[in-house]
């Protein structure tokens, strides 16, 4: 444990005492939380000497003197916030959480088909939901991941989604996490998504804030896709420019399931996404795509893992970085092909467009292959805007800024084009250009 | 006078490429600029279109009396100058049709004209693709990506038709084309000919000039126009090559 963050670790431990006293939970949950805080106590915060955190120094995150806000307080701002919800007008169901807590007044649930559960995790905890108890934290590695342990220790609320077998949920489900108020709030949103056999669902997560302040979001989303299930997942990370955002996406893909996730990063001062997909049975297909749009001194780190545990699974991965000013990108893409995972087909690419001399990327593909009859490819490119293409567009009358935007959009669209919710895709494309202008 | 180049000198990386070019193009005229490799033909085209890597050390270029060197590439396009690239650029991810509509509406805006709406634009596309016998399937692809050599050159002429320039510069548009593709390109250029519009054809081969008949032929050599004449000059070059002219020039210098 690093001495610079030891104090921070101790502060969280002390805070846990208060938290536990003020928020009594069921025996089961209290036990889960306590085991997690014990793991966190022994792990502490990671340092740049940990290989997994080599390029991302979380000292500022750890040392942020956060105010624990255990209840959402809209201070009468609900009407104003409600009118300006990020992607508030895209069609579908919406669960909104303020500072990590479910806010019924900012949510919008249409009639759901019978058997579908979309609720706050707090309510499920309260009811001692057995399905939650069976699956919560089971596919996650909270034993060895500090932030996952920390989230689990303070887990209170988030979304619980359960789609029964054979049900196709047509309308997207939007989980919106807002941070509101002054004083560096911290939240640990926790989502559990269970897609039954042969079901399908489209899930959108958005992380944003109502202000420009400093805060820390430490989120976890667990997605368990049943046999032959189809899950589309989109995560929009557009936190305040001063915010810290650390998140884990953990996917378990069952036999013949199909899971596709898109992560779009606009926001945050220091951002770290861990996305892991375990293909635990034959015939699974997983896509992890990402777009990173960095400016000013933002630091955005994406660590992905495609874990091929069984034969005949496919994985696709494409990460695009557009980095301006002094922004920093980190991409680490692991592919594991286990001994049993014959006939694996894994593709990974990451491309970076550097728009300024001071922008920087650390890209690292990491392939560990133990089976001998597999296809694995990876590629990484780093470059600037193509001057010849820029000149060609300008020579056809297109002004320089518009020409640059056309090229940047073309680059980012390799990721955005795959986003299945059309009105969301268009909004993200427009945000990309506003962001870089 | 549409274009007036006066005593133009240009360097790249300290090396002098153009050493005093003089050329005047009036409305309605077709000029051919010929010359051996390395004589400065493509440099001249690039400077006219607005590439910035050349340093102009002397002279000026006037386009309808305006100082062309003062204008950005997009402003030159707006004024009515068009360069058909020797090597058209492939731009992955940028749809040809969307690119063209952006280009057409950008020059229209520059010229104080209304934007074309989707319907008007498609009508114009339909009309102009015919001129160069270009399949509209190509327009659904990314700009020039995966086009054959001939398709790229025809696409350049198609873009030229769409942008309605006053002066078109064809930079070795004939290079690498078979005779059928060459005829299509030449027919396209001829179809767009008018008393107000002018064309400068830069070429290595006389062959193109059988189909696009020039009013004037100039020979560019070592950064200068060393001889000018009518279309018969091209035929003479075809017959005797550049050596006699080079020799004459060497004596004169």
Tell me what the structure shows.
The complex is a heterodimer of chains A (437) and B (253). With 437 residues, chain A is an alpha/beta fold. Chain A has 2 domains: 3-385, no CATH class; 386-437, no CATH class. Chain A has 10 helices and 21 strands. In chain A, the strands form 2 sheets. In chain A, strands 1, 4, 5, 7, 8, 10, 12, 14, 16, 18 and 20 form an 11-stranded mixed beta sheet that branches. Chain A has a 10-stranded mixed beta sheet with strand order 3-2-6-9-11-13-15-17-19-21, with helices on one face. Chain A is globular. The longest helix of chain B is centred in the middle third of the chain and has 15 residues, at 96-110. In chain B, β9, α6 and β10 (198-203) form a beta-alpha-beta unit. Chain B has one domain (3-252): 3-Layer(aba) Sandwich (Rossmann fold). With 253 residues, chain B is α/β, with parallel strands linked by helices. Helix content of chain B is 37%, strand content 28%. The A-B interface holds A 386, 388-389, 391-400, 402-403, 406-407, 409-411, 413-414 and B 49-51, 72-74, 76-78, 83, 85, 88-89, 91-94, 99-100, 102-104, 106-107, 110, 142-143, 159, 163.
Q: Biggest sheet of chain B, open or closed, and with what strands and sense?
A: 6 strands, mixed
Largest interface: A-B, 22 and 29 residues
Residue runs with pLDDT of under 50 for 5 or more positions of chain A: none
- Percent helix of chain A, as a range, is 10-25%
Net shape of chain A: globular
Question: What gross morphology of chain B would you assign?
Answer: globular
CATH homologous superfamily identity of chain B: P-loop containing nucleotide triphosphate hydrolases
Radius of gyration of chain A: 21 Å
Strand content of chain A: 35-45%
Number of domains of chain B: 1
The tally of beta strands of chain B, per DSSP, is 12
Overall domain count of chain A: 2
The total count of helices of chain A amounts to 10
Q: Give helix and strand order of chain B, one letter per element, not per position.
A: EEEHEEHEEHHEHEHEEEHH
